């Protein structure tokens, strides 16, 4: 791994974004970037900096009446020939530009450039968001250092195209199993073909009418879909088992238990085994600090139609929203990019919201 140049937190946020993108930080390999972030923040006299694994937490301790948390993950999905970054017009291309090193750059600029915010701030730069939940750095902090995540309100700098996205939907995966009976394929009438038996499951999915509930004023759109199917023994054997894996994205007015019960109802008569899942989070925009944030940022908040780590803050009792400069539809794409002007605009709006009592 080549040596990482020092991060310039006094420079332009767009240049900082490019510098962050050019430090490879695929999930599990964030150490070099975490080291650079810690080295840039540690000398700042207005911040207390804590390192936990490859997560870096920086806090103001000004005794303000409110504390807000601004968080962003520093890892990316695997590279796809999309480093180093490059600029074309107003667009910065490269792995992680949208998801979410542009948001991380904004948070770093705020941490350095707003030394006396009107609200105390905790900045959290964490690892392993793009992989399984057990490795997630925010999950680790919530389990081992929950006091570092305490606050009245949190902003997760996920890509939202510069619009507030409230809460998030929950997600679960389940395996729906069809049992059959093996036989030689030349004498198939002696068996029961489990793959053929999956047809009613697919029919139920094709006929499924997804809910579109309004939760705390925001419209969500659920989805229940097959994301995998597995069955078969050999080229001359009638299969005795077929497993359809389904993914249910559910609105935050349903608990995990309610979501599981719904899936059982849809596939009544079949064996259903839940393999993983995470609850959603309500928008939380009715909280006074959240309302102040929405007023400062402007625009019309909308529902987050995916799952994000706002759910982890919700579990800690901290209302949270998603807000960042990247386009979520470009996340994980080989041609991922972010608008340079949108990064600068996001920094301006966030700076205005935090204010600076020293200015």
Based on secondary structure, the structural category is alpha+beta
Share in β-strands = 15-25%
Largest sheet: 8 strands, mixed
Tally of strands? 19
SSE series:
HHEEEEEHEHEEEEHEEEEEHEHEHEEH
CA-atom Rg in angstroms: 23 Å
Strand order within the widest sheet?
A: 1-2-6-3-7-18-8-17
> Can you tell me the overall shape?
elongated
Low-confidence stretches at least 5 residues in length (pLDDT < 50)?
Answer: none
Distance between the termini: 41 Å
**Number of helices, where a helix is a run of at least 4 consecutive DSSP H or I residues:** 9
Tags for this model:
9 helices, elongated, 19 strands, four-stranded antiparallel β-sheet, eight-stranded mixed β-sheet, alpha+beta
Textual characterization of the structure:
The protein is α+β, with helices and mostly antiparallel strands. It is 27% helix and 25% strand. The protein has nine helices and 19 strands. The protein has helices at residues 13-21, 31-41, 97-113, 137-144, 199-207, 256-266, 288-297, 310-315, 340-354; strands at 48-52, 55-59, 67-73, 86-88, 91-93, 120-126, 153-156, 165-166, 170-179, 183-184, 214-215, 218-219, 223-231, 237-238, 241-250, 271-278, 302-303, 320-322, 337-339. Strands 1-2-6-3-7-18-8-17 form an eight-stranded mixed beta sheet, with helices on both faces. The chain has a four-stranded antiparallel beta sheet with strand order 13-15-9-16, with helices on one face. Strand 1 (48-52) and strand 2 (55-59) form a beta hairpin. The longest helix has 17 residues, at 97-113. The model has no long low-confidence stretch (mean pLDDT 95).
């Amino acid at each position: 791994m080549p040596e990482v140049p020092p991060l310039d937190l006094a420079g332009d946020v767009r240049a900082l974004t490019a510098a962050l993108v050019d430090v490879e930080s695929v999930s599990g390999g964030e150490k070099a970037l975490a080291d650079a972030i810690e080295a840039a923040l540690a000398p700042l006299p207005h911040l207390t900096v804590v390192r936990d694994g490859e997560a870096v937490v920086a806090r103001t301790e000004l005794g303000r009446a409110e504390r807000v948390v601004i968080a962003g993950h520093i890892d990316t999905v695997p590279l796809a020939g999309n480093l180093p970054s490059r600029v074309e017009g107003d667009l910065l291309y490269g792995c992680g530009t949208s998801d979410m090193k542009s948001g991380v750059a904004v948070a770093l600029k705020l941490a350095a450039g707003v030394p006396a915010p009107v609200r105390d701030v905790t900045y959290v730069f964490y690892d392993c968001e793009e992989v399984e939940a057990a490795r997630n750095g925010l999950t680790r902090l919530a389990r081992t250092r929950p006091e570092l995540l305490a606050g009245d309100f949190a902003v997760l700098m996920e890509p939202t195209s510069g619009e507030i996205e409230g809460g998030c939907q929950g997600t679960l995966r389940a395996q729906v199993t069809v049992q059959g009976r093996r036989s030689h394929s030349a004498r198939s009438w002696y068996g029961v073909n489990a793959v053929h038996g999956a047809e009613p499951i697919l029919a139920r999915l094709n006929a499924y009418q997804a809910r579109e509930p309004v939760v705390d004023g925001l419209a969500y759109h659920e989805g229940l879909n097959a994301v995998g199917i597995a069955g078969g023994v050999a080229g001359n054997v009638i299969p005795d088992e077929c497993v359809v894996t389904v993914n249910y994205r559910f609105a935050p007015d349903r608990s995990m238990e309610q979501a599981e019960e719904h899936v059982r109802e849809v596939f009544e008569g079949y064996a259903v085994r839940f393999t993983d899942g995470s609850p959603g989070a309500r928008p939380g925009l009715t909280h006074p600090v959240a309302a102040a944030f929405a007023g400062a940022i402007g625009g019309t908040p909308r529902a987050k139609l995916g799952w994000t780590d706002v759910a982890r803050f919700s579990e800690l009792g901290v209302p949270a929203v998603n807000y960042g400069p990247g386009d979520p539809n470009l996340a994980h794409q080989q041609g991922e990019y972010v608008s340079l002007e949108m990064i600068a605009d996001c920094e301006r709006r966030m700076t205005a919201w935090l204010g600076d009592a020293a200015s």
